[in-house]
Write a structure and sequence with these properties.
The chain is elongated. β9 and β10 form a beta hairpin. The chain has about 180 residues and is of the alpha/beta class. α1 crosses α5. The strands form three sheets. A five-stranded parallel β-sheet has the order 2-1-3-4-5, with helices on both faces. It has a three-stranded antiparallel β-sheet with strand order 8-9-10, with no helix packed on it. A two-stranded antiparallel ribbon has the order 6-7. The protein is built from six helices and ten strands; from the N terminus they run βαβαβαβαβαβββββα.
């Protein structure tokens, strides 16, 4: 399950974005857990790096989105930040805090869903684990999620993967540990 935070001072926009997340669940099948905040100070109050994606309004009355993002980045370098703004000039400043992107208000569903899918893709790529195996002429990096199975054949290990089959020298036990 992917944990999403929505930080937005306008209640109608907050509810709209939460509805968009639910719509994405129905459309793409990805499960999300949504937590909503009304201001930057509220999310920062007891912030712990538990969110995967944060949608962050730029203009809020107590603490703006840019300063909120700077403080979040100091505690959490991994979270995907996406700014919600009605002025495109804020987008450039967002890259200074490592924002993935931004969406302009009023927020259309298509633009929102594209940004959410982009963030999910980033999380998926980051979560992959690879195994380096020696093959003829060098090394090959295998995505562990793409390995169907492995079998031992003497002092060789056969990897059966989505990308083809590979026979490498070594013991099955050594690769199992890796």
């Amino acid at each position: 399950m992917i944990r999403v935070a929505i930080v937005e001072d306008e209640a109608a926009v907050r509810e709209q974005l939460a509805g968009y997340v639910q719509r994405c669940t129905r459309q793409y099948g990805t499960l999300f857990e949504v937590t909503m905040f009304t201001d930057g100070l509220e999310i920062l109050e007891e912030y712990r790096p538990v969110y995967d994606i944060i949608f962050l309004d730029v203009e809020m009355p107590q603490l703006d989105g840019m300063e909120t993002a700077r403080r979040i980045r100091a505690m959490d370098s991994e979270v995907q930040l996406i700014f919600i703004t009605n002025m495109a000039q804020y987008a450039i400043k967002g890259y200074a805090v490592g924002a993935l992107d931004y969406v302009l208000k009023p927020v259309p569903y298509f633009a929102f869903s594209q940004q959410l899918q982009k963030a999910v893709g980033q999380l998926t790529r980051r979560a992959r684990q690879y195994l380096a195996v020696p093959v003829d002429g060098g090394m090959r990096r295998l995505d562990t999620a793409a390995i169907y199975y492995m079998e031992s054949d003497g002092h060789k290990v056969c990897f059966y993967t989505e990308d083809g089959d590979f026979i490498v020298p070594g013991a099955l036990k050594a690769f199992e540990e890796k």
